[in-house]
Structure formats: structure tokens, C-alpha cells
Specification:
Elements: H1 4-13, E1 21-23, E2 28-30, H2 31-35, H3 40-61, H4 63-66, E3 70-71, E4 77-84, E5 93-104, E6 107-116, E7 125-131, E8 146-153, E9 165-176, E10 181-195, E11 198-208, E12 213-215, E13 221-222, E14 229-230, E15 233-234, E16 236-244, E17 255-263, E18 271-278, E19 288-289, E20 306-313, E21 316-323, E22 333-339, E23 352-358, H5 370-374, E24 379-388, E25 391-401, E26 415-424
Parallel strand pairs: 3-23
Antiparallel strand pairs: 1-2, 4-26, 5-6, 6-7, 7-8, 9-10, 10-11, 11-12, 11-13, 14-15, 16-17, 17-18, 18-19, 20-21, 21-22, 22-23, 24-25, 25-26
Length: 428
């Protein structure tokens, strides 16, 4: 016999992870087959009660999917300034990218990527550092920053997991609940070249021992799911991290959080954003892919932002990063969104989006034309938000083209990278 309730419930079933079933003592029976065993009056009561429950349950689960996005138009960051360029680097280095700023005591430090101009080593990428004089604020002129010619973190020996590149540094000061001590770590993306155009990307860290940054021997996060792999190898990176203080007298017993992006073929999920947690910053939880809506989503990039940073303030998460907009390239650039939870699980999370900087706004170190912006070979990357002396600063890097090439999406030989900074007028 046909069951009208099945037709209605089928709508809800298609929006749930699995078909709703009721467990009998003998077998799993679809709901409509089971209810014919009850009197008609009881069927009506049970059906009405369960249907109401399903509606409420489904509504709560789908709030994030159905909510409308609020999308701003005016850039929140202004007064862009060129901060660190290749011309400021010591001899033998080129490109400044992926900035991370940390204050140790009274001194600000900058960690960033740069390419060692060594052809025999296939131009490896290191993490360099720069510092301000003690007591100076982030408002200080860029000329006061002194770049250290000795890398803070370098690629490992040949054959190790990070033997070609260490990049995208993100600092965290947190409590390692396994060792029962406070530690300062720079998490970074390391990779080796498997073969031409095939790389194996993994996330590791280096820990400050009082004199230098000592690398943990093994990566702590590797792409293992199909949606974390490309060409059969781990394809993850652009991580950011934060330590959530615990109930200990100084914040001990807290939780480490990390967000990172993955890439895979469109049929495997395309580009994803992932959230994981840890008690020691070494062993991480099951990976959770974030599913919130984003402006300008397309077949490949259904989430974001990417090359991301997080600022936690007043019980709110401020996520800043890059958003693609292939439909209207003039709106592509660095964007800011907010959430009350680290994974966007509460109603209203990731629902309001604000442009920080559009990459095609005429600024020379990140606007090299819309054609190369379309394939994102030039443009904006790696937002980092820092507060200091009553001001909110945005640091980032831009890739730009210094000369003419025939194909701007395939020939990077004339490209360079520089770090910029801007003031955020007000956090929403």
C-alpha cells in the first residue's frame, strides 16, 4: 500500500546524512512500513508528533545552509603601504610572502617566506625573520625593520619530508597537556618534490628552545582522505592556529585549534577548509570539513576564506583570507567574516562578509591586471590581523609581474612577491 507520509518524509530524508529508520527488535524497518501495525488513531498522533520533531530537527540542522549571506561592498582596510619587498632582502634572497607577526616581550618580530637564489638546490624556500627595535609599535616605519640574513627555519636534509620548502609560518603559544609545560611553536607547511609538478605537502612545527627554533622531526598533519590528496599525495596547507585557554590557573588544560585548506579533483571535493583540535598540538583530532556558505562560490571553491588567519576577540572569531570571484573579478581579494564558534556550527556563523582589500584596486604590488588575477598567479594572499597600540593592522602579501610574458597564467618568470600592510578602520 502507498504511504503518503513517506512522500513527505522523503523530502527530509534527502537532507539528512542517512535515511531515517526505526529500530525494531527483529530488523530495521522504514518508518511507513512499521506504522501500519498500529491503530489508526495512534498512527495519526505518532505521525503528527514525529513529523513535528523531524521539521524542528531538520530546521536546526539546515539553518546555516538556508541563511542569507550579508555581503559588504566597501573595503575595511585602507592606507596600503609597501612593507617588505625583494629590494629590502639580504643578497641571495628573492620574494617576501606569508607574513606572521609575533610580539616577544617588548619587541615585534616578523616571520615570512623567501626564496634562496641557489639553482643547485632548486631554489629552496625558507622562513626568514625580521624585527623592530624594542618598544616600537606596528605603526613604526617599515624602514626600521631589520631583516635577519640567517633563516629561522630551513628545509631539511635531502630525503626528509620538508627537504625543499618550509613556508606559511603561524606562531602559537600554548600549553602542551602531555608534557605539562608551556611552549612556543611556529607551525609551517613543508613539502618535497616527488616529480615534476607533483609535491607532497604536510604540516609540521618548530619549537623555541630558548636559543633557536628546533623542528619537530615528523609532520603532525598529513592529507589522508581523498579530498586531501592530488596526484595521490597529500595536498594541504595555508594553516592557521590558536590556543584556547583551559581551566588551569594560567590557562593550562586548554585546546589547540588549527584550520587549514585542502585541494583535490572536483569529483573528490575540490577545495576544502578543515578544522581540527588537539590537547598537545602534536596529535590532532578527526578532521572536520567546514560546510558554511560563502559569497561567489563555484564548482571548485565552495568554501573559504583561504590563506586564512584568525583573530579571537570578545568571544568572536574573525576569519580573514582570500575569496575567489570568477564572476566579478573586481570583487576578488581579501575578505573578513565572523563566527561565534570555531567550526561555524551555530546559527549566524559565517553569514556576514566584509571586503578588506580588493586585489585589482590599482596598487602595484598586487594588481597586475585581471587576466593573471583570474588564474590567481598575481593578486592577494595570506591575510594576518594584529592589534597593537589601539590600532588593528592587516598584513598580507601580493604577487605581481615586473615584465611582459606571453602567457601570464603559465609563465611566472617575471613575478615577484612583497608584503604589504594596511589599517583596518573598525572590526565589525
Amino acid at each position: 500500500m502507498d504511504c503518503p507520509l513517506n512522500e513527505l518524509l522523503n523530502f527530509f530524508w534527502t537532507h539528512q546524512p542517512s535515511k531515517i529508520m526505526i529500530q525494531s527488535s527483529f530488523s530495521k524497518i522504514p518508518f511507513c512500513d512499521l506504522i501500519w501495525y498500529f491503530p489508526k488513531s495512534l498512527i495519526i498522533k505518532i505521525s503528527s508528533f514525529l513529523l513535528l520533531g523531524f521539521i524542528i530537527h531538520w530546521s536546526l540542522l539546515s539553518t546555516a545552509d538556508s541563511q542569507e549571506l550579508v555581503i559588504g561592498q566597501e573595503e575595511l582596510a585602507n592606507n596600503e603601504q609597501l612593507f617588505i619587498s625583494s629590494e629590502r632582502l639580504p643578497k641571495g634572497w628573492r620574494v617576501a610572502s606569508d607574513p606572521e607577526l609575533v610580539k616577544f616581550g617588548k619587541r615585534w618580530w616578523l616571520f615570512f617566506n623567501s626564496i634562496e637564489l641557489n639553482r643547485k638546490k632548486s631554489f629552496p624556500i625558507h622562513i626568514l625573520s625580521a624585527s623592530l627595535p624594542a618598544g616600537k609599535s606596528l605603526s613604526a616605519p617599515a624602514s626600521l625593520w631589520k631583516v635577519n640574513p640567517v633563516p629561522a627555519i630551513s628545509p631539511g636534509p635531502k630525503g626528509t619530508w620538508d627537504d625543499h620548502t618550509t613556508e606559511t609560518p603561524k606562531f602559537v603559544h600554548g600549553y602542551d597537556n602531555q608534557r605539562e609545560e608551556w611552549v612556543g611553536r611556529i607551525y609551517y607547511l613543508g613539502w618535497s618534490i616527488i616529480e615534476k609538478r607533483v609535491k607532497d605537502y604536510r604540516i609540521g612545527f618548530a619549537e623555541w628552545d630558548g636559543k633557536s627554533w628546533v623542528k619537530h622531526p615528523d609532520p603532525v598533519i598529513t592529507g589522508t582522505h581523498r579530498w586531501e590528496k592530488l596526484h595521490g599525495y597529500s595536498f594541504i596547507g595555508d594553516q592557521t592556529a590558536w590556543y584556547e585557554p583551559g581551566d588551569g590557573p594560567n590557562g593550562e588544560n586548554g585546546t589547540w585549534h588549527m584550520w587549514y585548506q585542502t585541494a583535490s579533483k572536483p569529483k573528490e571535493g575540490g577545495v576544502s577548509l578543515v578544522h581540527v583540535t588537539s590537547k598537545d598540538g602534536v596529535v590532532w583530532s578527526e578532521k572536520k570539513r567546514l560546510t558554511h556558505k560563502v559569497p561567489f562560490a563555484n564548482q571548485l571553491t565552495k568554501t573559504g576564506p583561504f590563506h586564512m588567519d584568525v583573530l579571537v576577540k570578545n568571544n568572536k572569531f574573525y576569519f580573514a583570507g582570500f575569496l575567489y570571484n570568477q564572476a566579478d573579478i573586481t570583487k576578488q581579494g581579501l575578505w573578513l567574516t565572523t563566527s561565534t564558534t570555531p567550526d561555524g556550527s551555530a546559527p549566524g556563523d559565517f553569514s556576514k562578509w566584509y571586503p578588506l582589500i580588493y586585489e585589482n584596486n590599482g596598487i602595484s604590488w598586487h594588481d597586475s591586471g585581471r587576466e593573471s588575477s583570474k588564474c590567481h598567479k598575481t593578486g592577494l594572499f595570506s591575510a594576518t590581523i594584529k592589534e597593537d597600540a589601539g590600532k588593528t593592522w592587516l598584513f598580507y602579501h601580493g604577487y605581481f609581474r615586473k615584465g611582459k610574458v606571453k602567457n601570464v597564467c603559465q609563465d611566472n618568470s617575471k613575478n615577484d612577491g612583497a608584503i604589504g600592510r594596511a589599517l583596518i578602520s573598525e572590526l565589525p
